[in-house]
Amino acid sequence: MAKFEEECSYNCVSVKNFFRLPIAFKEENCYLINEGNRCIVKVSERKLLHSWRLKHPHYFTAPIVFDNEDESMYCVIENNTVLRWPYSTADDDVLKVASKFKFQEAVFGVIPISGHKPLILFASGKAIKGEELGTQSVPKGSFTTENENLIWADSLELNSETVVVCLSQKNDNYQLHYFTVTERKMKRGCNHALVQKEAALKNWCLNKSTHSFVTIWSNGLILSYNLDTKEETTLLTLPDIDKHSLAVDFMDSNHLTILKYIPKTKGACLEMWDLKFKVLKARKTLKNIGSTDVKLSVIGSSVFFSNGEDLVEVPYHIEKSTLASGLGKCSSAAPILQEFSWSTKKYTDSSSSEKNTIEKMDIAENETFVLDSTELIAQRLMEEGSSCLNYISEAELVRLLRLAIRHKFKKKNSEEKMNIDPVIILNAVFSTSFSEVFLVKSLKKLSLEDTMAALSFLASFLLDDESPSVKDKEKPSDLQLFSWMFLVIQSHMEALLLSKDKKAIKLFRKLQKCISEKMQDCEDIENIQYLLHLIQKKKNILPEKYVTGKYCIETLDT
Q1: Measured distance CA(352)–CA(349) in Å, rounded
Q2: Which of 70, 131, 273, 364 could form a disulfide with 368 if both were Cys (CB 3.0 to 4.6 A apart)?
């Protein structure tokens, strides 16, 4: 169980058509609830494998949970009844094969417990262990007070024990509760008040990798409360989110995905954030979002979100910093649901003879301008200054260098849509500390054209030929510039030796001028002088594979 909100999970009695989140995941199959058709569907590779239906007037009031101990599925219907049945069953109607446990008070949900049967959690804050179902039907314990409503619950592994984490609300006050469940008992738990002055709680999620409860507030703060150390830290600060509906979840321990609903445009955007470097790595723009009640769930390497009647899957790749095109579109549930497939264009229902009218929801790939991770870092650099590069990798420094070269010389269309000054970017890049080994490795990936452009930039900075848009205190020192110049030449020595470009001669003269005007006691200057001398004189330093007209035969006596 990931996360869910009160309205769409427990207290609603009206039947809606959207697919209920979160999604359960078992053996590469997804299990989710289609409320409009009152069925649980089993999906793999975006194909329906099986469905279990409820008879009218039954309705679901909580997501599905798996019990790995006896290979059973659990769900809650009509707020007070728990169903348990083997997920391998082929029966169409869950009530025919399910064990049924009805209680006198409202069941909030079923919470997975590692190594044990799930915990039955009640709206009152009481609970029953799964092992006690059928033998003891009286809930026990409680961690909530009068008029305090339970609105969210989940579980995680902490210090080899399962911790149940709950969120309650009383008026405008939110309280975090968490307690340990062992084989024998439920231990007394802890409480933590969630408070932010003059800010409202927008959304929350659980980071199971770091054992933290994460909240996002209307003032833009994203806070993390560690359940083990009981310390609260700030992960990130987002601007202008007060009027947005938000949903958050974790891709891994350091990457957070955020879905923002934007009222003005009636659209939304899906973002991937790197919390370690506090960098926005990817953004996907979504159009025609009809519901402000956005929900999000990360399963495997995909982000699932629901929008009213729609379920959309967006695959992601953290290493490549990409959010793929959205897959998925569903319309109102048909009376008999036998097969469906996801595509980027439409939803098809083979059981329906009538074609449903489908409102297009475009996940803009070509129509909308989407920034890559390097461009996003550049934008942040323009807004916040070079301090955002303190922990950046050498590979990203070189990508920023290439971005500045592109905007300076190639004048791509993206430049018109991005407020980027190449001179400011280059000053920040050349001023940032680096590891020589890793920088050389990344510099070798530059093309010859970009290499010569980088050398030209370095020479211009040394000769003060560039734009005065940067203050003197923000400019790199001559020693920093000469260090970059030496490493760039060293990384592409062979290509520069073989180059027949006439522009190269002019560039080398410019570099010689820099050296003569900036004569300093600097090892890099001497090294650069030596390399330039070799390049210009083209002495016999080429590898043997480039030398023609010579060969050698060696005879070995045996």
Answers
A1: 6
A2: 364
| 88: its two tokens | 């391998």
Q: Could you count the other beta carbons within 10 Å of the beta carbon of residue 230?
A: 9
Torsion angles phi and psi, residue 258, rounded to 5: -130, 130
pLDDT above 90: percentage of residues in the chain: 17
Q: In terms of DSSP bridges, do strands 60-67 and 99-102 run parallel, antiparallel, or are they unpaired?
A: unpaired
- What's 409's DSSP letter? I
Distance of alpha carbon 121 from alpha carbon 166, whole angstroms: 10
Rounded Cα–Cα distance for residues 217 and 204 (Å): 9
* pLDDT band at 344; cut points 50, 70, 90: very low
The Cα–Cα gap between 64 and 439 comes to: 49
Rounded CA-CA distance 59/78 in Å is 6
> What mean pLDDT is predicted for residues 149-164?
91
Q: Angle CA(464)–CA(465)–CA(466) in degrees, nearest 5? A: 95
Alpha helix segments (H runs only) across 475-544: 478-491, 493-498, 502-517, 523-537
- What's the Cα-to-Cα distance from 361 to each of 2, 173, 290, 309, 438, rounded to whole Å? 25, 36, 9, 12, 43
Asked if the bond preceding 22 is cis, omega within 30° of 0, the reply is: yes
Query: pTM of this prediction?
Result: 0.60
283 CB-near residues (< 8 Å, 6+ apart): 269, 270, 271, 272, 323, 370, 371, 376
Q: Are 36 and 17 in contact (CB under 8 A)?
A: yes
Instruction: Say which amino acid occupies 88.
Output: S
Tell me which residue has tokens 């998925």: 328
**What is the rounded distance in angstroms from the CA atom of residue 558 to the CA atom of residue 105?**
96
Who's near 366: CB < 8 A, 6+ residues apart?
none
Sheet (strand 127-129) strand order: 107-111, 119-122, 127-129
Strand, helix or coil for residue 155: strand
pLDDT digits (tens, 9 = 90+) for 400-433: 888 888 887 655 444 445 577 888 888 888 888 8
Cα(480)–Cα(431) distance, rounded to whole angstroms? 7
